[in-house]
Amino acid sequence: MKKHFILFVSILLFLPIKAFAQERSKMTAVVVENAVLASGKLMRIVRFPSKNIVPRPVDVWLPENYSAEKKYAVLYMHDGQNLFDATTTWNQQEWMVDEVATKLMEEKITKDFIVIGVHNIPKIRFLDLYPQKSFNYLAEEQLDSIKKNAIKKGITLESFSGDAYLKFIVYELKPYIDKTYSVKTDKENTAIAGSSMGGLMSWYAISEYPKIFGAAACLSTHWVGLTPSPKNPLPAAIFKYLEENAPDSKSHKLYFDYGNKTLDQLYPQYAPIVDKLFLGKGYVIGENYKNLFFEGTDHSEKSWQQRLDIPFTFIFKN
After folding, report:
1. Vertex 207, ends 205 and 258: CA angle to 5°?
2. Which is more confidently placed, 10 or 99?
3. Which one, 27, 144, 313, 316, has the greatest CB density within 10 A?
4. Torsion sign across C-alpha atoms 173, 174, 175, 176
5. CB within 8 A of 231, min separation 6: which ones?
6. Cβ neighbours for 264, distance < 8 A, ≥ 6 positions apart
């Protein structure tokens, strides 16, 4: 009887694992035939399975003449649905990743690389992209206040999934990319990039997984954390986290930038703090660190596309 019970429990435990494995085995990337691209090919896994986060589409952009005979660097980017094709985005704007990357590679300015675009789920985007461990650097009364405000919005601090989102990229997505495509797998050839909340998640990724990512590009980083508010405690907590966890300057590159229009007008006040923090960690401006100001630019894909060549060149320079 006892043996039968153990066998029954074992089967119950095995079934979800088997189901997940079967889902992974059926996972295929298909060409997005109607994608409006300047160059290259866009592949899509419509629903990338995950044990860590809500499954979502993942795009893989392969440059023109992609060949299994050579090895490519890999750039992981957030908000994947906004990167390549303005005809399908919510605001009819795009990053123009394919245009910029193609030009840089053709001119031999950067090493050859592919781009992985992880789509966001709008309703939970801020939960996925917030640097979760920075909450640990809040004072008790600050944390209590944030918990109360979160509850009013129908969420809890436990709902934040930044750590799970990174586990998805590192332990589920990257192994698939490394196995499926002809890529270099070391950190010197693996970078991560994003804007706004995606900027927060990019420096968080390289801080949490410094052996995985060698560079991060953080455009219009949303240093205010979440929604701006009087006496906002989140930026200070974020900087305290970074003070203790910034990646080693001897083996990493960090790119930041910001404008001063629309939401970007909130960011210039933090630039001196960011500079002091990273320069104090041994980073050298122009060598492995940049924090650039773009006068008159706003918080939009149109602004980011106009300067995208700068971070791409910085992280993947030939």
Report:
1. 75
2. 99
3. 316
4. positive
5. none
6. 220, 258, 297, 298, 299, 303
Q: Which tens digits make up the pLDDT trace of 257-296?
A: 999 999 999 999 999 999 999 999 999 999 999 999 999 9
Bin 79: left if φ > 0, else alpha if -120 < ψ < 50, else beta.
left
What is the C-alpha to C-alpha distance for residues 157 and 173, in angstroms, rounded to an integer? 25
| pTM of the predicted structure, to 2 decimals | 0.91
Mean pLDDT of 118-139: 97
Q: Specify the amino acid at residue 19.
A: A
Give the confidence band of 132 by pLDDT, cuts at 50, 70, 90: very high
CA distance 119 to 302: 18
Yes or no: say if 318 and 111 are a contact pair by the CB < 8 Å rule.
Answer: yes
What the block records as the tokens of 72 is: 């490519």
Contact 165, 131 (CB under 8 A): no
Q: What is the 3-state secondary structure (H, E, C) of 284-301?
A: CECCCEEEEECCCCCCCH
Angstrom distance (rounded) from CA 168 to CA 78: 12
Cα separation, 117 vs 32, whole angstroms: 13
Which DSSP string corresponds to the chain? -HHHHHHHHHHHHHHHHHHHHHHHHT---EE-TT---SSSEEEEEEEE--SSS--EEEEEEE-TT--TTS-BEEEEESSGGGSS-GGGSTTS----HHHHHHHHHHTTSB--EEEEEEPP-GGGHHHHHS-GGGGGGS-HHHHHHHHHHHHHTT--GGG--HHHHHHIIIIIIHHHHHHHS-B--SGGGEEEEEETHHHHHHHHHHHH-TTT-SEEEEET--TT-SS--TT--HHHHHHHHHHHHPPPTTS-EEEEEE-SSGGGGGSGGGHHHHHHHHHHTT--BTTTEEEEE-TT--SSHHHHHHHTHHHHHHHHB-
